[in-house]
Every structure is written in C-alpha cells, then in structure tokens.
Amino acid sequence: MEPPSLDVLIEGTRLSKFQMSRAFFQTHGVSIPQYVRRVRVEKALELLAVSRDPVGLIGVQVGYYSMAAFCRAFLVEKGVSPKTLRKSLSQGTGTASRA
C-alpha cells in the first residue's frame, strides 16, 4: 500500500511535478493524495468486513502508521470511524459509503 512517489510517476515523461499533479486532478477529479487515501480506505473497508484483525492493525496493513491518521482518513472518506463502521457491519446495519 505504498504509493509511488511523484518523482517515480514523472519518470519517462516530460512533465514537471506540478504538471503531473494538475493532469491527475483534471483526469480523476481528486488530487494524488486524496486518491491514495480513497484507495487505502476502500481496502480497509474490505478488511473490516471480512477480517477479525484489530482496527489498528488494519490501518497499518493499508499504509497508515498512526491510528489517529487512519481514523481521520476513514472519517473523511466514510463519514464514520472504522470502529463504528465495523460495529454496524457486525450488526447488519452497515451503510459502508457516503458518496
């Protein structure tokens, strides 16, 4: 879950970091860091639904090394904490995504 650096992304292109970032945003509608966060949170959502691993370990598995950073990212993407979402999934009331 370690994304390539911007330097790696621009290798072999004639784009600057700024141009690559702008082109990515124009193509995908989100910045590169927002995209990475979204992919990590979606993977975490899958793991929360099928795994019994602790929430903190799932955060590490998807690339977060701080529980606070993982919870913040999850809250931004899903509107609930990973712990709350897992609890609702286990009760069969989970609405897993915001928009």
UniProtKB/TrEMBL annotation:
InterPro entries: AraC_XylS_family_regulators, Homeodomain-like_sf, HTH_AraC
Pfam families referenced in this protein's UniProt entry, alphabetically: HTH_18 (PF12833)
Keyword Transcription regulation: yes
GO molecular function, one term: sequence-specific DNA binding
Keyword terms of this UniProt record: DNA-binding, Transcription, Transcription regulation
Domain HTH araC/xylS-type span(s) in chain numbering: 1-88
Top-level taxon: Bacteria
Name of the molecule in the record: AraC-like DNA-binding protein
Source organism (scientific name): Roseimicrobium gellanilyticum
